[in-house]
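Support request from a user on the community tier.

User writes: "When I paste my structure tokens into the form, the page sometimes reloads and wipes my input. The last time it worked, I copied everything first. Here is what I submitted, just in case something in the input itself triggers the reload:"
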């Protein structure tokens, strides 16, 4: 009996402790993250870029999409997650209107939906302009109409025919000659199409190099080779405050990159994997890679693509080049246009030194032509056989007080095994 009474007493005490803890938890207020503000949507070719203002304390954000109005976290067609304040939703149908809302998450609690925004993707309109040059080349061909004047000559002999019947047979000879000339006239016609491609050329050469070749020269300054490793510190300077992180990025064949966060402690061991235009981020706590966009901001005005992709010629085509002078410097200005769906920007203007091809400045634009930021290439030092920029200074086009820098701490030639560039390896990448 004593044993039974003792066990019963222990059970009652445990129930009392649990109930007290439950009451204490119930008394603690549940605070949800605030709703994101300043939400906007910008349409592109088969894509929409959604941006918003950051929520204090938010650990991540969810973006909900629907092809009909009244989108919410309970009524949607698709969902994406990100840790930054922008997301590019690709793979959408041009001409279809899409609706989006954004929520903030903190401590596994999801906040209230943002206001709904909408955008309609559309294809570029510039493409149809090129065929207009073709009909102009055909204009010289109507000139052979002149031979019909020959009958005027043949008409005169008949008046003299009564006087001298003998010349009558000669008249056909005169008529016969114009047809011979007529046959010669069409000969230039095949040559006329030859000049047609010239008006369509948008790649004039500077010296002996085309814009595409100049772009490759500029990329060779930024990247030491196809396979290398670089240590980069990204710092956001806003007023008197600074926020930074440090990543070690492994690049293979230009198209594959693996970026591993080393600092700060709150982001340590996070991993970004990029294969062609596909990108994922891995959080140690989630144990599952999440699909993200190369256009998303990593920190400040530096995007994921700015760290993971080190050359421009993979995603952009150099359409034209212009010569400029800045003080005593002779520069080349390349106009680049996105040629892949995964390109982080719609277009880029890139300035190079004419003699050394070293980049000096770049302007980055959206698909709609809005300036996003301007980057200055500084701190040129001798690295791996030539002078390379060790500091990139990025200025926001709107927030004038924000400057983001990318400082290259080290760079070395090193081949990374192919099996490292797999999603299944991301949970082990931090061991490298």
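"...and here is what came back when it finally went through:"
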């Amino acid at each position: 009996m004593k044993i039974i009474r003792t066990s019963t007493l222990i059970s009652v005490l445990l129930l009392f402790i649990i109930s007290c803890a439950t009451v204490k938890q119930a008394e603690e207020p549940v605070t949800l993250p605030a709703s994101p503000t300043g939400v906007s949507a910008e349409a592109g070719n088969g894509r929409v870029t959604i941006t918003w203002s950051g929520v204090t304390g938010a650990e991540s954000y969810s973006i909900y999409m629907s092809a009909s109005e009244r989108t919410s976290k309970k009524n949607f067609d698709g969902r994406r997650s990100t840790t930054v304040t922008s997301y590019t939703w690709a793979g959408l149908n041009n001409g279809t209107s899409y609706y989006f809302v954004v929520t903030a998450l903190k401590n596994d609690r999801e906040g209230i939906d943002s206001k709904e925004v909408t955008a309609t993707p559309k294809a570029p309109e510039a493409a149809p302009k090129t065929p207009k040059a073709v009909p102009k080349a055909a204009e010289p061909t109507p000139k052979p109409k002149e031979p019909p004047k020959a009958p005027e000559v043949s008409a005169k002999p008949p008046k003299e025919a009564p006087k001298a019947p003998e010349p009558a047979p000669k008249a056909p000879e005169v008529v016969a000659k114009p047809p011979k000339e007529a046959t010669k006239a069409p000969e230039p016609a095949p040559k006329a199409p030859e000049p047609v491609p010239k008006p369509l050329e948008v790649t004039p050469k500077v010296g002996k190099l085309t814009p595409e070749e100049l772009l490759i020269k500029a990329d060779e300054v930024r990247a030491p080779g196809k396979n290398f490793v670089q240590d980069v510190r990204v710092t956001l300077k806003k007023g008197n405050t600074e926020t930074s992180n440090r990543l070690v990025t492994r690049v293979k064949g230009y198209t594959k990159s693996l970026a591993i966060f080393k600092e700060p402690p709150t982001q340590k061991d996070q991993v970004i994997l990029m294969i062609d235009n596909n990108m994922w981020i891995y959080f140690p706590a989630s144990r599952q890679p999440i699909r993200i966009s190369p256009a998303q901001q990593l920190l400040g005005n530096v995007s994921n693509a700015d760290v993971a992709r080190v050359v421009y010629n993979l995603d952009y085509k150099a359409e034209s080049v212009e010569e400029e002078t800045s003080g005593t410097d002779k520069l080349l200005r390349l106009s680049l246009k996105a040629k892949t769906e995964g390109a982080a920007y719609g277009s880029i203007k890139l300035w190079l030194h004419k003699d050394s091809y070293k980049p000096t400045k770049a302007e980055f634009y959206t698909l709609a032509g809005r300036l996003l930021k301007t980057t200055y290439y500084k701190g040129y030092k001798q690295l791996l056989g030539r002078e390379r920029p060790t500091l990139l200074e990025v200025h926001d086009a709107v927030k004038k007080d924000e400057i983001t820098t990318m400082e290259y701490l080290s760079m070395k030639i090193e081949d990374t095994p192919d099996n490292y560039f797999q999603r299944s390896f991301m949970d082990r990448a931090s061991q490298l």
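Agent notes: The reload is a front-end session timeout and is unrelated to the input. The chain is about 20% helix and 35% strand. The longest strand covers residues 371-383. Escalated to web team.
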